[in-house]
Amino acid sequence: MSKSPTSHAHHLTRTALTSQLKEHLDKDVVLAGWVHDVRVLGGISFILLRDMSGIVQVTAPKSKVSPDIVKEIGTLHQEDVILVKGKVVSSKIAKKGIEVIPEQLEVVPIQDSPNLSRILRHPAFCGDTTAGNYLSG
Asked: How many angstroms separate the CA atoms of 134 and 10, rounded?
């Protein structure tokens, strides 16, 4: 199975919380949380991703990310649950001085799960940053 930059198969597992990102500067992380806001401008798209520890800006310049990611961001709505794999970089524009450039984006389709308890075990909903795949077990 090829790894698409956008996916609904849920292969990503959160590796950090937004409050821990300064410790991961210039490294790849996987974040899980809710879409707080989304803005799609001409050559750049932004997601404000919220987890239980805070909010971070995910910045997707068309020149640096795959067209699939740009397209997927355009379909997001507030409170959608997403997982984002990307690189943490410093930013003079982002409010917290850091942002994430996405390499992979997964939307968690809550309606696809027949078992709500599985959704609630998803890393976006629990405090365990080492939690496994929400569809396992």
From this structure: 8
- In a structure prediction context, what are the per-residue pLDDT tens digits for the chain, which is 137 residues long? 334 555 445 578 889 999 999 999 999 999 999 999 999 998 999 999 999 899 999 999 999 999 999 999 999 999 898 999 999 999 988 888 999 999 999 998 766 544 444 555 555 555 554 444 444 33
Domain spans in the chain, listed from the N-terminal domain onward: 6-120
CATH code reported for the domain at 6-120: 2.40.50.140
Q: What is the pTM of this model?
A: 0.77
